[in-house]
Amino acid sequence: MKINSSNQSASTITVTVDLNIKAGFTGMMIVQMENGVEKGHYPLRSNEFTGSLESFLNAAGMAGYLVIPPAAQVTA
Question: What is the pLDDT of residue 51?
């Protein structure tokens, strides 16, 4: 780990991470860090994305789905 010496916040660091990916990979990755150390990584497929629950519900609504909270569902 190398401390960033630029004019940014003193808590900003530069971290070098070794990723095990296929040659020619282009895309997005999720990298899990713990205390400045990489704990794992996962390349996203072209049809995958990450987001909050709110963004998921938004995307589902835009795709035409109606998401009903469990408390609002009627049981038979």
Answer: 92
